[in-house]
Amino acid sequence: MMLDRLVADMQAWFAAALPGHGIYALMAFAFIAGLARGFSGFGAALIFIPLGGAIVGPKLVSPILLVIDGIATPGLIPPAWRNANRSEVFVMAAGAALGVPVGTALLALLDPTLLRWSITVIAICLLALLVSGWRYQGAPSAPLSSGVGLIAGLFSGAVQLGGPPVVAYWLGGKSDFTRVRANVVLYFSISSVFSAISYYIGGLFVPAVFALTAVILPSYALGLFGGSKLFGLAEERTFRIAC
């Protein structure tokens, strides 16, 4: 009887927390986003945030991506730690520590409609930056790295879209593609901790976030696994074009 009651309570909780439509679309978006993240080390937010936000709203979609990515990606961290330029990553993460709380405040306080359109505009602009082929060609420096981290942290806190500034900065340098990917993975493992703390303080981890995480996580993890396998087959030129 107690088990039946527990099951019934769980079913009622899921029914109340999950949206009435769009679950299968969210699962498909999560799979494609995971594929991009597993291959390049970034890109999940550019896919999942605008598309998923159109279904469940911006105040849910950002913490959902943060949670599913945090659960699914720990396996990427050990090789990233070995291959990354850790000093560069830590300097950039210091900038993110300042930017993430500001972005989170914007996510918590802005009107949802305004936020949704802002996400769309930001995503299009950041995608255009990557597609344009522009990359920073100079030598990395501590002030510039921390500045990029500040901007990326602001975008991460607000809409989980911190990847493109980081990638445009690191992908144009002389580092090989294995190090670039490792830098990106390690940086986001650190900045995600800042985001999780900020989201918790901002009250963004509502029950619907965890209900949707339970449904979407398997699709994202499958995409992440497939993307990681594809990275192992890629040459440097292929990796840079795909990014």
TrEMBL record:
Family: Belongs to the 4-toluene sulfonate uptake permease (TSUP) (TC 2.A.102) family.
Species name: Rhizobium bangladeshense
Protein name (database record): Probable membrane transporter protein
Subcellular location: Cell membrane
Keywords recorded for this protein, A-Z: Cell membrane, Membrane, Transmembrane, Transmembrane helix, Transport
Listed transmembrane segments: 12-32, 39-57, 89-110, 117-136, 148-172, 184-202, 208-231
Membrane topology: Multi-pass membrane protein
PANTHER family named in the record: MEMBRANE TRANSPORTER PROTEIN, TRANSMEMBRANE PROTEIN YFCA
Location (main, coarse): membrane
Protein biosynthesis keyword on record: no
